[in-house]
Write a structure and sequence with these properties.
The chain is α+β, with helices and mostly antiparallel strands. It has twelve helices and 36 strands. Helices cover 17% and strands 35% of the residues. A hairpin with a 2-residue loop joins strand 34 and strand 35. The radius of gyration is 24 Å and the shape is globular.
Length: 594
């Protein structure tokens, strides 16, 4: 087991303990997904530092974080003119006034800067010192990492996921969650475990997890979102899927499975002069909103109960220089709407790692059909699993934070090929869930496509995921211990506190040629799916997990699964899984026996 020890024990280095973690930027295989606009992101990365604050009560905002005794200063304001260094892409600091913990998250593309961090100082707007610690470079090679943290049961429980990526067993000691000491944990090689702790907090509260592996201290932090897994759409302009403006369209998209709408207050999109009523009535009408960039101005949201987050950009990850612009937008929303999470979209693999973490929620789009535009080379071969691979890469960069991934959908004038096939839509919808994303955005919904057979298939696909939305939200992907038989397929296991969700997706498709599609020859305009017969999978069960019954998640709810399921020791085998050509995924639930 290889552990990079870059942290000294707290009793040696300083009066108050501090913990950290570091990851390099993840990116997709450039042979499969060639992005030709720059080198691969092999330098720099993202760090978390968790420090013990020296304050009582709520600090005076905005805060300022500085590194190495003022050599690099980052005020937490929507104006980066005060930055005195170009070494950092961004640096974010959040505090929990109840636990006294300070979470600092940052990204730099420069190895020298990241390895040279020796002092972190946080002050508030009155120049009071929140924390001031001598540190060293963040832990870079840790076998056990925190991959996802969320709350459940109305913020009364905290769910923490740990993944051992190493090849041997690891003991996690000195485990402290939100400032409270917890029992030690041991994880075997490749093991994923889920821990649940009491919690008494609210939306956007800062969480922290600290622990030791050997003599190295590891720390992660983040913020809590609303306890919702959104099935969201970006509605076609003028279609107004809100009860206040177009009840029939609202009901049509609700019937499709959409429960959250991207929302622009202008009349072209809201279709009403009384756009504030949409905000006011959202929860009463049982849907959520993601407001567009109009929140760049303060006092635009008089009603916030139905708002899941604040959209700051669509595809802002053009280059590293845009990181500061995105950070500025995030800080403006933090200042003007301090009680709401922020969201940014994305489109690249190479730059994604630098942007992931600026906001509370990260988005990503990569479309694989209909001659849709994409960031990969025009002469590269499109892969049907491209959406999944980009969304999973985004999850790997954003963890332990949330990703709300896009899925290409039915729009009569968005794609060169107007009528996407059922398999083309359902495979991309399933990709969002299989990539362990925590929300889905359809781009775009268009009522003019309701007669397309893909609409009905997509509706059925949403219906099969709806019964497991909460399991998917509190669960996370098992990184190891899952194998399957057929190569044109993907089997993902999401481990939740009470069950395993098994998502089987078929990639059994051919015939699409992105190049000839784009130049208008007509050939290769569609993926042609075939049925996938007899898929089987084996799952190494988590420690202490005793499987109960196996169910399938369907539009009729959870029903007994009509597949073969057997257990031998700690191995669960699923077989005789057939997947169709229109609805290209099946979802199973393995309940934990109580």
């Amino acid at each position: 087991m290889k552990i990079f020890i870059s942290l000294l024990l707290s009793s040696v280095c300083c009066a108050a303990p501090w913990y950290s973690s570091y990851r390099k930027d993840h990116y997709t295989d450039p042979k499969l997904y060639p992005e030709l606009f720059g080198p691969n992101p092999t330098t720099g990365g993202r760090a978390h530092y968790v420090l013990q604050g020296k304050f009582s009560g709520q600090p005076a905002f905005p805060l300022t974080v500085s590194f190495n005794k003022g050599k690099t200063v980052v005020p937490q304001i929507p104006d980066y003119s005060g930055w005195n260094s170009t070494d950092l892409d961004w640096a974010r600091v959040e505090v929990n006034d109840k636990t006294g913990k300070v979470w600092v998250s940052l990204h730099s593309t420069k190895d020298d800067f990241m390895s040279g961090i020796a002092q972190i100082t946080v002050t508030d707007s009155k120049q009071a010192v929140i924390c001031d610690e001598s540190v060293t470079a963040a832990n870079s090679e840790i076998p056990v990492e925190v991959t996802w943290v969320t709350s459940q049961k109305n913020f009364t429980e905290l769910v923490v996921h740990l993944q051992n990526s190493g090849k041997s067993s690891v003991s996690v000691s000195n485990l402290v969650v939100n400032g409270e000491k917890q029992s030690d944990v041991s994880l075997s090689a490749g093991e994923h475990t889920v821990l649940v702790y009491p919690l008494h907090t609210a939306l956007l509260s800062v969480w922290t997890v600290e622990y030791s592996i050997g003599s190295g201290n590891v720390g992660f932090g983040g913020t809590l979102l609303r306890e919702v897994f959104p099935f969201e759409d970006w509605p076609k302009g003028g279609q107004c899927p809100f009860p206040e403006s177009n009840q029939s369209n609202f009901e049509l998209f609700k019937d499709l499975g959409v429960d959250t709408h991207f929302f622009n207050k202008n009349k072209e999109n809201s279709c009403t002069d009384d756009w504030q009523s949409i905000l006011k009535n959202a929860r009463a009408n049982n849907y959520w909103l993601l407001p567009s960039e109009f929140t760049e101005k303060p006092d635009e949201l008089p009603f916030q109960d139905g708002v899941l987050g604040l959209f700051i950009s669509d595809e802002g990850d053009d280059n590293y220089g845009k990181c500061r612009d995105e950070f500025s937008r995030h800080m403006q929303r933090r200042r003007d709407y301090p009680g709401l999470p922020t969201y940014q979209g994305g489109k690249t693999s190479k730059f994604n790692g630098a942007f992931a973490g600026i906001t509370d929620i990260q988005g990503m789009d990569f479309y694989t059909a209909g001659c849709a535009p994409h960031v990969t080379s025009g002469i590269s071969k499109m892969r049907i699993q491209g959406a999944h691979d980009y969304l999973l890469n985004t999850r790997n960069n954003m963890k332990p934070g949330a990703v709300w991934g896009y899925s290409q959908f039915l729009c009569s004038d968005c794609w060169d090929v107007k009528a996407l096939s059922p398999g083309e839509t359902t495979a991309q919808i399933a990709s969002v869930f299989a990539a362990s994303n925590k929300g889905m955005m359809l781009f775009q919904t268009d009522y003019r496509s309701v007669s397309n057979p893909a609409w009905a298939s997509s509706k059925a696909m949403f219906a099969s995921f709806k019964p497991v939305k909460e399991l998917l939200r509190v669960g996370d992907k098992m990184q190891a211990g899952v194998t399957w038989s057929a190569s044109p397929a993907q089997v993902t296991v999401i481990q939740a506190p009470t069950a395993l969700v098994v998502i089987a997706v078929s990639w059994n498709a051919d015939g699409y040629n992105d190049l000839t599609c784009a130049i208008g020859f007509g050939a290769g305009a569609h993926w042609h799916f075939s049925e996938l017969k007899g898929l089987s999978a084996t799952i190494q069960l988590p420690a202490g997990f005793v499987p109960g019954n196996v169910q399938e998640s369907t539009g009729s709810g959870l029903v007994p699964a009509k597949i073969s399921a057997s257990t031998s020791g700690s191995t669960l085998s699923l077989a005789e899984i057939d997947i169709g050509k229109d609805i290209t995924a099946r979802v199973f639930v393995v309940n934990r026996k109580v």
